[in-house]
Amino acid sequence: MNDFADLTPIKIGKLDAARRQLLSAIRIYFANGDPVSIHTLAAAAFEILDDLDNHGADTGTMFDHTEKYIKPGYIDKFRKVLRRPQNFFKHADQDPENTLEFYPSAAAVMIWAASEKYYELAKDDCLELAAFQTWLMIRNRDILLEPYRQQMERSGLSTDFTRDMRPQYFEKFSIEYARFNQKALR
Asked: Which of 1, 17, 102, 108 has the most CB atoms less than 10 A away?
């Protein structure tokens, strides 16, 4: 049987679709994969999560509460860098010849925004989300507000990982995460 002949459907809810997109984006991120693909997957997850929030608790997203996370001097650039790529990577009907000056770090911010909303809606603290959140705190402590900076310091995780060492960090974090969860089950 070939792949095209398998017509067995799977049922996927909106929250599960967002979860799958988000976790895939995080795994590609930690494999030092393509930032356009990462951003596109994370943005797709974010859009679903934002829509679910609008139909439920309507608490808003990180973009609605930027000042809660980011120092004032970084807020405008933060917002600007994120929204344009989200549409540029999905559509070509209005501007087929256009180009974009894309900041690869925007992919990480989009993952962060989607992760925050996903956790709020699903209360699902899985390996990928935990690894990504701690990575952000370790790598960006200079722009984070004090409560997040303190949380990073309490984690005891090394700040010696460079941006190119994401695969090594994820491997180390995965081992520690498994060890911690094993202890919790005892």
From this structure: 108
